[in-house]
Design goal:
The chain is α+β, with helices and mostly antiparallel strands. The protein contains two helices and five strands; from the N terminus they run βααββββ.
Amino acid sequence: MQIKLSHDSKEFIFKLKEHIALDNPNRARQYTTKLLSRIKDMLQHPYIGKVNATFDDESIREIILDGIKIIYKIYPKSVGVVMIYRYIDIDESKLETN
C-alpha cells in the first residue's frame, strides 16, 4: 500500500522537527524518522484507525500517535494522509480530503 502525505502533513512534520531541533537536533531527526516510520507501518493496515466523526465516511479515518492526530483517506491502491496535528481543538470540517 502506497502512503502519500499532503503538503500540510509534510509541513507539520517539518515544523515539528525544527521545534525539537532548537533543543536537540539529533533528537529531532530521530523522533521525526520514528514518527514517519510508525505512520507508514500503521497505515499498511488502513482500517486499523477509527472512522473520523467529523466526516462520517468509512474511507476517512484517524489514528493518534504520541498525542498527534493523523487523519487519512483510504483509496483503492493508496492511503493519503490529509492532516497531522497536535491533538487539540481544531475545526476538522474545514479540512479538504481530495
